[in-house]
Amino acid sequence: MGKGNQEGTSKQFRWTKPMEHLFLEILAEEAQKGNKPSNAFKAASINRVVEAISEKFQVQCDAKHVENHLRTVKKQWQIICTIQGESGFGWVDNMKMITCDRATYDAAVMVQCL
Length: 114
Description:
Layout: H1 17-32, H2 43-57, H3 63-84, E1 90-92, E2 97-99, H4 102-113
Antiparallel strand pairs: 1-2
Helix pairs in contact: 1-2, 2-3
C-alpha cells in the first residue's frame, strides 16, 4: 500500500525520466525567452511545467514538486561542475557523462564517504 489513504495511492510525487526530460526542455525554453531574470524562474514558467507534466503524464503535479525538483537538479549540476574541474575527470559531450579511471573514482568516493 502507498502512503495515501487508499490502496495504490501515494502522496509522494515520483519523477520519471520522461517527466524530467520535459521539465528540463520547458525550463531551457523559458530561460532562452528571458523568463529567468535572476536565480529563479518566474511563476509563469513554473506553472507551464506543472501544466505540461500534469497533462502529458496524467499525474497531479503542482508548483512545489517542480520547485523541489529544480533544487535537486541544481545540486546535481553543482556536483558535476565540481567533479569536472578536478584532475583525472573528463566529460564525454555526446553521452553527457563524466569519465575517469577506476583509481580516480575510488579515491573520489572515499573522500565523499569520510
